[in-house]
Structure formats: structure tokens, C-alpha cells
Fold:
Amino acid sequence: MLRHVTAGVDGSVESRATAHWAAREALRRGVGLRLVHAWKWHPRPPASVPADSSEREWAEQTLNTVADDVRTAHPGLHVDARLVPDSAVTALLATADGSEVLVLGSRGLGGLTGFVLGSVSQRVVARSVRPVVLVRPGGAATDEYPTVPDDGSPAEGTGTPYREVVLGLDTRRPCDELIQFAFEAARRQGSALHVIHAFGVPSGDAGEPHRAAGAGPEVLAVHERAVVAAVRPWCEKYPGTAVTETVSEGRPAPALVRASSGASLVVVGRRIRESHLGTHIGPVTHAVLHHVHCPVAVVPHA
Structure:
């Protein structure tokens, strides 16, 4: 079976940007691209469907328009366009299983504004067994680079370095899948990897309502050593990737948001677990997806 990246599209401007990001990712990986558009028959078609067209015809036209646009922009890329007669969440989860990565728009398919509870994107991220990348509206190839050629054309393939990849690392559960995904992304782009670890300092007395005044140098050194120990084997495996570590006291999400301002990609994890309240993506990942403006990769792990 042909290896591929999958992108969910719905014909919106946001999903077209998603499709083009997925196309660039497929080229970086040396694999094909699969575009998926899910649709279900409704007794009363949405207002977006022209009166002289059936829902299926309009869905096919929507998918083919995006596919043709991607093929024109990336003529050397194998593009497979698939129309799936099912709900968006079910269709995307099924196609994600056979993909290297699934790419979605962060606004959520179906026109939902923002990364809101119940959106297609959030439900797919929470349940996918494969990495999912969320792409913000308005993203362009030039956003992945700190500088572009004088003519303003995309810098891909010109030798211009990518912006760095940012990895959010929890040293209590350093996950191989998460760390490898970040190193591989940096390797493919030829960019640096910036590892972010933020930690909280609990109060020393259970009866004391206030937090400790701050982490001393000994506590900071313990966390720094834990980060170095977690990434050292990967630095040896990827000797060509420049790695920096930032360790600080505080909440992880704000630290990742700050670091993302100069990043091409932020990589965070999602523990695969079910609770009596359903499947969750975790508070740090949830906050990052709300506030980071570059693409965010969510990597599921045990």
C-alpha cells in the first residue's frame, strides 16, 4: 500500500490551506497525499448546495476542486481524492488508521469557528490512534521560514532554513513516540529542535495554602538533568539536528505558546486513555490548540 499523509477537506478557504500544508508534508516525507471529503445525505440539503445540484454532485465537485488545486501547485505529488459517505469524524478516524499523519484545519470541518468543544477536529484529535496536525486558517508555505526570497515566492527547496520545531516535554512520562515525532520533523525540515519543559513547585506543607516562593537552583538543576537524560539518546540518533532545551518554573502551556512565535511546528502529546467522562486531550494540549498560531502536532501515546 502506498504510504500517505491524509488531509480532511470541506471546500472552505481554511481547508484548502490545510490541504496545501498536508501536500508539503507529504513531499517532505516522500509519500503520497490522500484528500478525504465526508458527506452524508440529508432530507433537506444545506443552503450551500446549489439548487441545480445534488448533495453528492456538490460534494464531488468540492473535493475535485481542492484536489486539482493541490495537483497544480505540486505537480510531482501523487494525490488520491476520496469521497466518503459517512460522518466526518467516522470517515477521518477510519482513514487516519492507515496514514502516517492526519492533517485537519483547526477551525473544525463543517464551519465551526474556533477549536470548540464538540468540533470535528477536537473529536478526531481526542480519538485518533495516529498523529494529528491542526493547521490554522491563513497558513502559507512562507510561514514555515524566517526569511523568504526577494520575490516573495515560497522558500521551500531553495536552501532557506525552516523555523524551529518546538517540543513540549513532560519528564515524568517521556514518551518515545512523541520525542521521535519531533526529532523526525526537525530532521526532515533541516531545522533546529527546541525542547520546552515547565514545572510547578508544590508547597512544602499540606496545610499551607500558598505556593512555595519559587524553585531554587537545586530544583531547577534536577529538572534540567531530567530533560537532558530524556533527549540524550535521541540527540545521538539524530546528530545532525541542533537541540536546545528551555527549562522553567510555571505552567507548560504559556511556555509553549511563547516558544511557538518563532516555530514552524509545535509537537505535544495526548495520553491514550478513557475516563468515565469520555475521551480527553489533556489540559496542556487543549490550551496549546487554542492559543498557538502555527501548526500543532498532537501525538497519541500510552
